Amino acid sequence: MKRPQNWSVLLGAAFLMATSAVGPGFLTQTTVFTQSLGASFGFVILLSILLDIGVQLNVWRVIAISEKRAQDIANAVLPALGAFIAFLIVLGGFAFNIGNVGGAGLGLNVLTGLSVEAGAVISAAVAIGIFLVREAGKLMDRFAQLLGALMIGLIVYVAWVSSPPLTEAAIRTFAPAQISFTAIITLVGGTVGGYITFAGGHRLLDAGVKGKEALGQVTTSAVSGISLASVIRVLLFLATLGVLQQGKVLNPENPPASVFELAAGTFGYKLFGVMMLAAAVTSVVGSAYTSVSFIKSFHPRIAQNENWFIIGFIFISTVIFVFIGKPVALLVWAGLLNGFVLPVTLGTMLIAAHKKSLMGTYRHPWLLTLFGVLVVLLMTWMAGATLWQQVNGLLA
Q1: What's the CATH code, domain 7-390?
Q2: Using one digit for the tens of pLDDT, what is the confidence trace for 312-327?
Q3: What pLDDT does residue 43 have?
Q4: Distance between CA 222 and CA 56 in Å, rounded?
Q5: What's the chain's Rg over C-alpha atoms?
Q6: pLDDT confidence of residue 395
């Protein structure tokens, strides 16, 4: 019998994935690469969207059918592989979360004048508050939906007032003047790399959306998550392009803020504060929740005290930020790091997709498998080429 749609859970998972992706790093990466590639960045966004969808559909379907979390699936493919992947995911999650906490502090600094450190502590306290509630999962879903909708509304306004060159953007999206492997791998890594691609899949599993009968719902939620993140990416790209087309120069210390301020003046700068705060706090929640979901099957006490581990994750990230700080470059490099992790995690999921011991009588579509293999090969190649460029740059 077909399972009834639970739109609250499906949208919650989609928004959790999308808002986990749309953090300070996402905003920084988009503006930095638009500045370097111009309208040709549209091609990078288009290619990354196609790759993102292929990754999400493969990973989320395997999680739903196996009814297991990614680390348990990996251990079934190769003993100890799950622990290795969990280590990579948690490491990347910490790198992103330090940036997320700092971004939230910056947002409050813009809005209220509080120091970035004080803003970070307050924002972390709000995120922690969600996991002190008994129905934390439902509250997390609603929180992601409300702030996700707010972010879309804000970026629509800024894109509109910046008057972007739509014709040029459309042409260069399909006929780019230049292509950057670094930009592609960073965007894919920042949208579905590391912990992000598993955020919604693990949330659906925790909410009981699993099994063959749930595949339609899983597909809807996965595509919705990518679509939401992509809409924000495209709008920010257009807003940045519009500002640059007017001959204005972005502040290298805070490129996204420059876009909002140059497009809409002081009011735009305040809107950036709201956007950054919303993006950062939702990413703090998504990063902490998903990172802990990767270790909670390793010991029963972690699962029994999941919310307290999530709170600890947020607390440690905040302490590291307050005492060490975080430059803009870390946000770009965190996305690049996730791009390197993606071939490992996706490759593992593709092998699992064809193991009867995990998938039972389910037959994973060969078209999805081939697309997934293509993504693994493409991301491995681009990761290698990017690493070679970075090494040559250091040696030069």
Answers
A1: 1.20.1740.10
A2: 999 998 998 888 765 4
A3: 95
A4: 6
A5: 20
A6: 61
